[in-house]
Queue: 3 jobs
Job 1
Amino acid sequence: MVTKFAYMTYQDIETLITKKEGNSLEFKESTGQLDRSMETLCAFLNGEGGTILYGVRDDGRIIGQTVSDSTKRSIAEALNRIEPFVDLEITYITIPDTEKYVIVIFVEEQCFMRPFTYKGRAYLRIESTTTVMPQERYNHLLMERGGKYGWEAMINPDLKIADLDENAILGAVREGIRNGRLPETTIREDIPVILKKFRLLNDGRLNNAAAVLFGKELYDYPQCLLRMARFKGTTKDEFIDNQRAEGNIYELLDVAMAFFFKHLSLSGKINGLYREEELSIPYKALRECCINSFCHRSYHHPGSSVSIAIYDNRVEIRNTGTFPADLPIERLMEEHDSKPQNPIIANVLYKSKILESWGRGISTMVDECKRVGLPTPEINTDGNFVWVVFKYNRSSVVVTPQLPNSNPTSTQQVPNKYPTSTQQVHELVSIMNDNEYSVKEIMSILNLKDRVNFLRNYLTPALDEGLVSMKFPEQPKHPKQKYLLTSKGKAILSE
């Protein structure tokens, strides 16, 4: 690596020392102060980079120092004690009319490799002072680094296999097998073996990713949260609906899509013999955006969440996190190498075909919006959050009336003549119309993968409430069984 000081002259040094020592500049009389200077270099690496000059007094006077093979060896040995390894170049600048040098060590910002340590300790730079990094800050940077130090890979000693949803695990496995992403033998393996292959279980202990993906009770994970709001108009001045849900990724994805079905209208067109239902914003684009938000968000902040905001003219989906520094937003619009913030979570979602393919999520969203004539989704980040904006026409939104004098932050609405017990049932009813569908066809329209979840939360309650009936009621397991709306179910659609 060639630094910006590789071709520095003595005149450049004279210019540089006119600046005072501070956040990114340190003077040392000689490499006799090597230990202290390495602590400062470590602090620069944990900050925004910086420069150390050897052969310069605190007052800025250039005195230089002799440089021998032993000097160079001592510097190299000291640099080797900085972890993780960082490649840098040391520059030796001759002082005119002497045999002495100013030694320059410059380091660039290394935000994706922090925290750095020197002799096992991490340091921070505050103004012109180098200090030991607080443990809390160190842990935070470790989690941001990711990999084996990432939040998702951290072991939770209190998390047990019994705390996970076995049906969800097996559902993910079945989808993986069905789509050729897992071997067929996987379904016959014990749950601990499956979890180990998913990299969720190490030495008999579960990591945080296991809870995020398959947890049943997530009291210890307040960040496994989805906030949803439908606003009146185009601002946040007034709520029509305000909800929050806690759960694993698979559960939150279902809740998110149900919320879209509730507040975005369906339109239909005839394609051949079949009627195709389309949300005002393509279902696949919204789903892909939600998956990306759950998969790539930052989880290490307990108060963080994914949020969905629906306005009269747009939908905004927001999550904590940012994009890799070497992957500008412009490149995200194209097919690119995937660099997931949470590779363990991403791998499981990919294996279970929730995540369709690596590096194509955003281009899929763009293509889907383009297909129906909507503007390209806007993708934004401020370094702490990522949010995507889908714009659509006012006529395509469902306006849900409020009860008079209701609390604007509540979820109370004018009751239906035939209310459904859950949003999942309402979602099922809303897509059926006058058609007959098999279980497989309904699940395909709703983009659901887990048959057990579908039967338990969608179809069975709809049958029990008399909203849906069987084509062959005397033979529930008839090979050509279809499901259709009853008059009660149709009444809900006509409201």
Job 2
Amino acid sequence: MKKKHEHIIQSVRPGSIAEELGIEPGDILLEIDGQVIEDIFDYQFYVESEELLVVIRKANGEEWELEIEKDVDEDLGIDFGKGLMDEYHSCHNKCIFCFIDQMPPGMRDTLYFKDDDSRLSFLQGNYVTLTNMKDEDADRIIRYKLAPINVSVHTMNPELRCEMLHNRFAGEALDKIRRFYEGEIEMNGQIVLCKGVNDGAELERSIKELSDYLPYMQSLSVVPVGLTKFRDGLYPLKPFEKEDAKEVLEIIHKWQKICYEKHGTHFVQASDEWYLLAEEPFPPEENYDGYIQLENGVGMIPLLESEFDQCLADELEDGTDGFDQDMDSEAIDGFESIKTQNENLNESEVDLREIDRSETVENKSLDEPETENKTYRRVVSIATGKSAAGLMRRLAAKFMKQHPDIKVIVYQIRNDFFGEMITVSGLLTGTDLKAQLTGQELGDMLLLSSNVLRMGEEVFLDDVTLTELENALQVPIHIVKSDGQCLYDGMLGNV
């Protein structure tokens, strides 16, 4: 027997169909057209009808049957509080690379919750293993034409997948990819690559077999496993080295060429970490196929740099020459003086591509060579992880060359909280930021990437709040979205 679902109505929008029919907060939705409503996907599917029968239970226990006529795309005006209208499904796997298993003890319980809920793939873009998905769930996805679904594949070898996920059904779950392909459901795939496990020949096999599902398997990202210092008792994974990264890129570039010649798409993409680790240049923009895997860290660095460069180019084209047109004459005179001092700077002196990659925060100064008694209209600081530090240094140098009256200081933050092998800015904590930035020159404002905060909250992973960090460092903090325009505006002070 199918589980009975009852959904408490949290609010009713004014002027809506629901309000006109006397539906009130606290009422309970029981059925639509005789169908039990499991979650938001059932609800949205069944309300998209011109005629429907809705069963509501009132607070006094009375059940109302409401016959409704409306436009197909017209909503009832009911809100349920929970976006999913159901509890999240927890993960049944014990993956050898699971990041949550590598979390330090003593953090909030919610941070240890492992979800593997396919519905969150559509709502939030989560990647799911499909091991939690029943046949009827797959049927519903195909029936409702829900897409795209993001799949954590990791390997197309069924036996190896069972070993990697520590789930005896993990190999069988791969069959759902075939079902979605036959149902014409768009998918995106992800492979978390583990050294000596699913790389090399296994990676080639996975790319080849997944490419057979084109065009509905529309993209595949390959990302390196993230390893924290909290791995006692876990599978003995090793970090990738420079030569390993080169081998991974060689395989990916080979299959990009094959897929492009055959299908007109590069299909498989390497996350930015591979290029940084291999010390190889990023591919041209057209190789990213519209940045379909951007949220997986594929192309974020080259896209950010391209957007930032465009902001600088647009500024020159507009004739602003790097200063605010509303500045008073004294300020402009000061700007021109600074500009004159820097006109003869050689570009190589501020192009920081070759700057030392040391992880210490002391190597923070990324502006042009110091000029004695130099003054600035604005000083702004940026804190980032090791992976993005080189990029931030290049952008800071370009910006200051065009804006010699603004000083930008970039701080590379070492991840002591999770361990030095974690180099992405998204896993920086308030604890590390506070410890390494205290006493440093932070200027008028500190810029942080939005991915350092938990989604929808002003809180870092270690529960330090943004306000607490601001108070500790005694500097305003501006959260910057991961695009070039926002970063440019942050440096300029247009926030």
Job 3
Amino acid sequence: MESEKALPVYPNGFPDEVIAEFERRTGRRVLCNKPYSGTDVIRDYGEEHMKTGALIVYTSADSVFQVAANEAVVPVPELSRYCEIAREMLTGDHNVGRVIARPFVGTNAKNFKRTTNRHDLSLKPPRKTMLDYIRAAGLDTIGVGKIYDIFDGEGVSEKLKTTGNANGMEVAITNYGGSIVAIMVPDKNGKFENVIQGHDNLEDCVNSPEPFLSTLVGRYGNRICKGKFTLNGKEYNLAVNNGPNHLHGGPTGFHARVWDAEQINDRTLVLRYISAYYEEGFPGELSMTVMFTLSDDNELKIDYKGTTNKKTVVNMTSHGFFSLSGIGNPTPTCENVVCQINADFYIPIDENSIPTGEIRSVKGTPFDFTEPHAVGERIDADDEQIRNGAGYDHCFVLNKREPGELSFAAKIVEPVSGRSMEVYTTEPGVQFYSDNWADGYKGQHGATFPRRSALCFEAQHFPDSPNRPYFPPVVLKPGQVYTQKTIYKFGVEQ
């Protein structure tokens, strides 16, 4: 089934005739029938459900018909059958976007817990999505978790079903540039929305005003001055794609490459790519592996490993454009987002965004996020560095007890939704970018992305490090293994 009309929502619960028909077809009474948080509804109605066998039916701010039941009372296959009945029923004016089976376990309200045996029965997308266009171009699309269900399988060449995440967080990743297509997380009311920006067709992705939109970045993230560096006495000339400088691996860097994809287990995706000798001007053949893992604690973990056959430079990162309010038309500003960065120093830049050579204290500047501040509080301050970056576009020197330790880097909280994101990394720095150059270009599912509608935390080594011997080294030699680990952890604050 598909729908061209706006999908119906039920702020007062479903009509009596819908519930009566569902009860008749399933042979079970219904409890609740109103908007509710998934965790709260089983706490408040779970014990009555276990005593009576009645099904817990609830909805949310979006177009969903959710059915919760304890696995000891209603086995998962039986609950799935009830949801198939609901999907058949809900047509015409009641053609909801998704019917969701929500099994849980436990013996009482104190220990009830949702399981990962959920199942979504969705409408088919009314038109082609980015996933369809990517597949039509001969590339793979891998749906992680409930993404396959949300798109009713349309445009997905392979599904990676996540388990162990009872909170319902889901991630979708494509092997074109390692783009993160979706990160679905709840707000303080239990409403799930996509909190990362992207495109929904390959043509828009290739021709995007922001070519690094939520992609992997390499070989070298950030800028290299004039696209030149010297290694072993030889000067290398890189592709120049940001004024006079090299940026993010060049115009056909890792963000524009097709990676080999492998499903390791039910919640781990591995991407592999071999970068040829002199690709975008870099020496050596670089074999790179990037592993994405979704944890039980709402963590998206990204692990990088690389080897080379000739001395080269490497600085990988993921360039996620995070919009914790959820994407929309237009996507709301991020200037109200409260930000904390674990850095006492940052790297000043010149008018071309190249490091001046100084490592400067954040104290007394608009760059002091050692205590939480709203991003927009000082983003237009009368400050040379703010002017050079058109806002925030600077590398922060993270506080580390020892080099390479996995430690806290940053945290943001969106005050309206309550969504939060923490960043942990082994890298010495994080590039904080406040999306200063977006102009309202279109993104996925009708969303648009105005200026400062996203925040980026690119865990990395410092910009222009190949030309700065006093910066932490970025040279990789044959026999060595490049490693990096970054974690994006999502949560909710009331």
